Amino acid sequence: MKPKINIDWKKAIFFLILVVCIYIIVAGGLALSHPLPITLAILLLLFAGDQVAANIDYWLGVRKRRKEEEKEKQSQK
Which residue has the higher pLDDT, 45 or 2? Predict the structure, then answer.
């Protein structure tokens, strides 16, 4: 039997975009003479990406709970 793998495609696409942004920063040569700005830029992108992913999870959970509540109300009527 094949194991089922659940992939959250919205998060996967978001982090792919984040990786591309980091690559552009690195390939663009942002302050190649000093590594501190590039390190700070990458950390900032990672923290921002983590926050956005957490917000996506929260809002998807809220939407799912609302749908479940609506189903319960419909079934009670």
Answer: 45
